[in-house]
Automatic annotation (TrEMBL):
Ranges for domain Integrator complex subunit 5 C-terminal: 145-656
Protein name per UniProt: Integrator complex subunit 5
Pfam families: INTS5_C (PF14838), INTS5_N (PF14837)
Lineage: superkingdom: Eukaryota
Taxon lineage: Eukaryota, Metazoa, Chordata, Craniata, Vertebrata
Positions of the Integrator complex subunit 5 N-terminal domain: 1-126
Length: 658
């Protein structure tokens, strides 16, 4: 009866009764929820579905809930903030026992509750912040209702995440546009009409995102796409009027959010790097050059992010220094979601770093160092291998040496692990021929730098070159088959690497024989390629270098041990006496009588073959009076066989080969 009377009062005169009844009903629901929360029958506060079913089975609480819903529906047209504000106040007093009421009301009025909860939370955030503008974003404990806002939106996110995302993005957009009401239906107390609330909207959203990772994840992907140059200029104009301390607090909060973002880290990093890159650097893609003030702001934000990541990486074991040498640490390591996601983008980060754009490659190289320390030996090895594979000149290759210099202080055995990783990629055919060639050339350049560095003071570069040479010497049998690679550029790079790499102190006879045979075979292939290049008039610089490297490799193998000397001499003699290689050393292919065989282009086709005639001898009827018209001197009736002049090779080339 009481419920029916109250319902009739609200229906007949909502402006008079709805505010009173809504405040009384929601306060009474909060008191009942807290008073009976400790009873055995009541389920845990985290089980919202069970709590909702339990309380809605009670006639009294069900009547109170229906009365409040009727008041809220009546007040939506003229004063929704008062009703939602009472809901927030009660949620602050009786949370978490009151969450089931919020969940039920939010499910019944999702659009209204989401927008009004955010508006009420923004007003309370601004009023508790201070006398000026209330932007103390770092002290969320001083804003009592923001926790309730986070809780309510968290309950609604399960079924209304899309509405929450749209409302958060709308609030961000409206805070940047001129101070005009969003629509004619907006009330006079709407936050869009207040300049003070509009200035506080961005800090409020940052604080919400910091308190609820789910809310941040719902908007982070679209927020980056929204930050175009016009929006960035509006955001800069909004933040220019803030005091320095409050602006630093906002930047620190943004850095914290980026570092704790589990998704979209690569996109955020690319956006910051593109926007912070100086205007003199050409940015790939249609992105226009940002405003100087925006660029400086992103530059500062990126520097703060790198510093924050540095602290997280080197202090994640309760203050102990990180030791990536051991992959399995006894102490639990703190997880940094931003770096966790970037572990799968090492190749792209290395490619961007090797572009050597001013400032940009320094930021990315520092990030690669932090990512290598954070990820341990596996990520560090992958990063170094990517740099060795993708570097195309000495300037780019120097970034790999800088990475090793930085990591060598906290990580041992990085070079041998990187070489072993490269060998594994060769065995699994992971690298394309062009990448394989570049890797071999870069390794050879690293070893050859020993001679240059040995002349001066021994430094980190010289130490790394020695380590690379030592690591490759243990894998010569893995690089040996590349001498016979189908791509001549890869085989050339392989012989260049093997000709300058140190030989191991000990090696198995099987490996030595395989390397010797591959080296001799490559020697004859290199001679053939140089000869073919001369015939067609191409530049013989590369093929000549391949022959020189092959000769150097054979001489080093021959001096290594008596076994390799004997094997190389034997295979060289066999190869030189082979008919197919006779022309490489000034010889000519002769027939059975010792006469040189003319090439098909020199000797005319007489239409008869002595071989065919001899094959038919004895198999055909020899009629009397018939004669054999074909014999070794020619064909009867067609003259003697044409004697071709011997095509003698260039003596200087033969002497050079010898």
């Amino acid at each position: 009866e009481v419920h029916g009377v109250l319902s009739e009062f609200i229906r007949l005169n909502p402006r008079a009764w709805a505010p009173l009844v809504s405040t009384w009903a929601v306060d009474l629901l909060g008191q009942l929820s807290s008073k009976h929360a400790g009873r055995r029958v009541a389920p845990h506060s985290s089980s919202l579905n069970e709590l909702l079913q339990l309380w809605m089975s009670c006639a009294a609480t069900r009547s109170l809930m229906e009365a409040y819903s009727q008041c809220l529906a009546a007040m939506l047209a003229w004063c929704p903030d008062a009703c939602v504000d009472a809901l927030l106040d009660t949620s602050v007093k009786h949370s978490p026992h009151f969450d089931w009421v919020v969940a039920h009301i939010g499910s019944a009025f999702p659009g209204t509750i989401i927008s009004r909860v955010l508006a009420c939370g923004l007003k309370d955030f601004c009023s508790h912040g201070g006398k000026d503008q209330g932007l103390l974003v770092e002290k969320g404990s001083r804003v009592p209702k923001i926790g309730s806002v986070v809780g309510i939106l968290g309950h609604l996110a399960a079924h209304h995440s899309d509405s929450i995302r749209k409302e958060l993005l709308r609030m961000f957009q409206e805070s940047l546009t001129p101070s005009t009401p969003l629509s004619p239906t907006s009330s006079s107390t709407s936050w869009e009409a207040s300049p003070q609330l509009r200035r506080a909207a961005v800090p409020f959203l940052l604080q919400l995102a910091a308190m609820s990772p789910n809310l941040f994840g719902a908007v982070s992907s679209e927020l980056v796409e929204m930050l175009r140059p016009p929006v960035l200029l509006q955001l800069q104009a909004l933040l220019q009027g803030l005091p320095r301390e409050e602006l630093d607090n906002m930047l620190g909060l943004a850095v914290h959010l980026i570092s704790q973002s589990p998704t979209g880290g690569a996109r955020v990093l690319k956006f910051l790097a593109d926007t912070a890159t100086p205007a003199s650097v050409i940015i790939s893609g249609p992105t226009p050059s940002p405003h100087e003030g925006v660029r400086e702001g992103c530059d500062r934000l990126l520097q703060m992010l790198l510093l924050h990541l540095h602290k997280l990486v080197f202090n994640r074991s309760d203050g102990a220094e990180v030791s990536p040498v051991s992959s399995a640490s006894s102490q639990p390591q703190r997880v940094t979601p931003f770096l966790e996601e970037l572990r799968s983008h090492v190749g792209q980060l290395c490619a961007e770093t090797l572009r050597l754009e001013r400032k940009r490659h320094l930021w990315l190289h520092q990030l690669l160092c932090l990512l290598s320390v954070y990820g341990g030996p596996s990520v560090a090895t992958e990063t170094l291998c990517q740099l060795l594979t993708q570097a195309r000149n000495p300037e780019e290759l120097a970034l790999a040496w800088q990475l090793h210099t930085t990591l060598s202080s906290c990580m041992a055995g990085l070079i041998p692990a990187a070489v072993a990783h490269c060998v594994a990629q060769i065995h699994t055919h992971t690298l394309a021929p062009r990448q394989l060639r570049q890797l071999l050339l870069n390794l050879a350049a690293a070893i050859q730098s020993q001679d240059e560095e040995r002349k001066g003071a021994a430094g980190a570069h010289f130490s790394m070159a020695v380590q690379i040479g030592s690591a490759i010497s243990g894998h010569l049998h893995d690089f040996g088959p590349l001498l016979l690679h189908g791509d001549s550029a890869v085989s050339h790079a392989a012989v260049r690497l093997l000709s300058c790499s140190p030989l191991p102190r000990t090696s198995s006879p099987a490996h030595l024989l395989l390397l010797s045979r591959a080296a001799v075979t490559h020697f004859f292939l290199a001679l053939r390629r140089r000869g073919d290049a001369k015939k067609v008039g191409r530049d013989v610089g590369q093929t000549g270098e391949a022959v020189s490297c092959s000769v150097l490799l054979l001489s080093r193998f021959a001096a290594y041990s008596p076994l390799t000397l004997k094997a190389i001499l034997q295979q060289l003699v066999e190869g030189a006496l082979h008919k197919g290689n006779a022309d490489l050393f000034g010889g000519q292919i002769a027939d059975m009588s010792g006469a040189p065989v003319a090439s098909p282009s020199v000797s005319p086709d007489l239409g008869a073959s002595l071989l065919d005639i001899n094959c038919r001898f004895g198999t055909t009827v020899n009629f009397s009076g018939s004669v054999w018209s074909v014999f070794h001197a020619g064909v009867i009736g067609k003259g003697l066989k044409v004697r071709t002049a011997a095509n003698l090779p260039d003596p200087s080339a033969v002497i050079q080969v010898g």
